[in-house]
Amino acid sequence: MKVPRDSWDIIQKIIRRYPEQKEEYEELEQEIREGTSHSDGQPGGGMPGNPTERIAIQLHTPRMERMRKEISAVEKVYTSLPEEHKKVIRVRFWSARYKNMPYLWMERCVSYKEAQIRRICGKFIKEVGIALGEVGK
Asked: Under DSSP, is residue 16 helix (H, G, I), strand (E, B) or coil?
């Protein structure tokens, strides 16, 4: 099954922002667990007085759930790849020096030709899309 173009773009963005999003998620999670969130002196609204409940509720907001789902999907697919394919993914999506590098130029960085690099990246995008539920099998 072919990945629709709009889904392809969304999945690529999720993959590209993975390192920053993972870092942000871990910082937010630590901040919530330690209770060091910035307080503006205003009442807490409808948040429970029990600290454990408050932490549980803050960790399960729609934003945190979405971030957790996206991070998990990328990690699940990435960890299942052979080491040489992982290198292709790192160079293509996460290496600041090479972001948006044409596939043809990537041949200098990895031991594959352009067509194989395209297949590896395409399969990775599709598998992440399946893991996210954005694409059917």
From this structure: helix
pLDDT of residue 109: 84
Tokens found for residue 79: 């960890």
Q: Per the structure block, which two tokens stand in for 86? A: 């992982």
Q: Indicate the pTM of the whole model.
A: 0.79
Q: How confident is the model at residue 63 (pLDDT cuts 50, 70, 90)?
A: confident
107-115: long-range pairs with CB below 8 Å, 24+: 110/84, 111/84, 112/84, 112/88
Residue 130 burial by CB count (10 A; 0-12/13-18/19+): exposed, middle or buried?
Answer: middle
Give the start-to-end residue ranges of the domains of the chain.
52-137
Judged against a pLDDT cut of 60, whether residue 81 lies above it is answered with yes
pLDDT higher than 70, residue 44: no
What token pair was written down for 53? 């409940």
Residue with tokens 């392809």: 8
